[in-house]
Amino acid sequence: xxxxxxxxxxxxxxxxxxxxxxxxxxxxxxxxxxxxxxxxxxxxxxxxxxxxxxxxxxxxxxxxxxxxxxxxxxxxxxxxxxxxxxxxxxxxxxxxxxxxxxxxxxxxxxxxxxxxxxxxxxxxxxxxxxxxxxxxxxxxxxxxxxxxxxxxxxxxxxxxxxxxxxxxxxxxxxxxxxxxxxxxxxxxxxxxxxxxxxxxxxxxxxxxxxxxxxxxxxxxxxxxxxxxxxxxxxxxxxxxxxxxxxxxxxxxxxxxxxxxxxxxxxxxxxxxxxxxxxxxxxxxxxxxxxxxxxxxxxxxxxxxxxxxxxxxxxxxxxxxxxxxxxxxxxxxxxxxxxxxxxxxxxxxxxxxxxxxxxxxxxxxxxxxxxxxxxxxxxxxxxxxxxxxxx
Length: 390
Known about the structure:
By secondary structure, the chain is of the alpha/beta class. It contains twelve helices and 16 strands. The protein folds into two domains: 1-54 and 350-390, Urease, subunit C, domain 1; 56-348, Metal-dependent hydrolases (TIM Barrel). A hairpin with a 5-residue loop joins strand 1 (2-10) and strand 2.
């Protein structure tokens, strides 16, 4: 049993508790509040003067999949299978390296869970998964049933395939190829259903369409890469045509369509935030984007869209607060909102009784560049400490 006491507890869902106490038993939070009696057998962590919050969550990373340390050119990266623009059958599970150094780096910054997956070279790029940042194998790390399908619009598929005189060369081609594939998957699913009564209707097994059955049925979320405002609208249009369960990834020009995104209750994973104008679709990025979307009613998840660079996301969040993002929404953007998006909010994302004891403790405001993470705990086990607390 562990008792964390004396700190400023950011519960996320039930306000702030000054000089609060958290009791942990058997990997779970069993009590949280002020003036709680601490069992005599509890190991005490005195967090007086510190900030305590749920372990941070980044809902869009490429940790381990892209591979670190890397080389120039990047020989270690396994994030894009660029032989074909349609690869729904590949999975980040098979690229994940539990010993990747990025895992330790982001854990030491206070992150306890992330989503990692394929990049955006392909129109349909395969599935990623949600991870606890601990364990010796993928199976130990992964949240069961957490696979999402990656899709991408805009410059990346055009650049990877169009320059080699392959489809897609244009935004029209990307949308058409995506629609074509989803329509074929629906026909494949229809014939499989008909085959239950007439075995002659059974289609020849096709791993591409098998991999999309849960997508077209709405059982599996799709994560649509889109920066420019027209790509954002294309993503919404196609998702609604096929009744997909979707989120928009990056939404860099989301502020231009904030009213639409708010009215439609679209999930947006916004970031990265410090991109140079290296490609045309991010030329109009602005740090006020997250604030504008939030004030339009969008639940904004915040991402660094990287690997070990995820460790710097808290500082980026501070920049967003300075540009109007409400502090409460900023905290939710790296805790409960990504937990909800990833389907893991029953376990993580807030400090509540019954949830996993995934906790980060900071020596100042978590989103200040003067602040360091003092301790990172996952399921009651300390994976990082700077020596101040224990």
